[in-house]
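Lab notebook, bench 4. Still working through the backlog of constructs that have no structural model yet. Next entry is a single chain of 184 residues. Request: give me the structure tokens for it.
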Amino acid sequence: MSAMSMTTSSVMEPPLAPVRCAAAGKYLTFKLAEEEYAIEVLKVREIMGVQHITAVPQTPQSVKGVINLRGKVVPVVDLRLRFGLADTEYTARTCIIVVQINTTEHLQMGIVVDEVCEVLNLVEGDLQETPNFGQGISTPYLLGMAKVKGKVKILLDIDHVLASDDAAGLHELLRGHVTEQVNQ
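Model written out:
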């Protein structure tokens, strides 16, 4: 019986993640390439134009580096690169959105987007669950979809988008770098 159990468990697929749908409320919309995305306004701490970003060696390509935000060092991730989109020159419309992410600790990170569009107040009737894209395609970083004025906005779980080993490793690297500078 144990051999049968092993065989059966080896072909079973992992359990599906619980279906989540975005909650009604305020969302900040922004563009990447030609698509519009949205994140919960409560996650947004600040919106600013692109400023000097200090590169940090040995980081993934999507991690552009760090900025000095009123004396605090904040990592910056280019969402275009994070999502595998083509890199592009920054323009006058390119922005850094500083967000509060909740992983094991509360961290601030900047995300580079092509342009900020607007704040939308989404109601339940605007929202849909993330569609099933088929077997083997996982979309845990999506909260759902919003239908607004005949267009679809992709609602992101920014915690999940930014909560990766890369982000955690970058914060550890920065802590060590800042500690070294203080001790010198």
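Notes after review: The longest strand covers residues 25-32. Helices lie at 2-11, 79-82, 158-162, 165-183. Flag for follow-up if needed.
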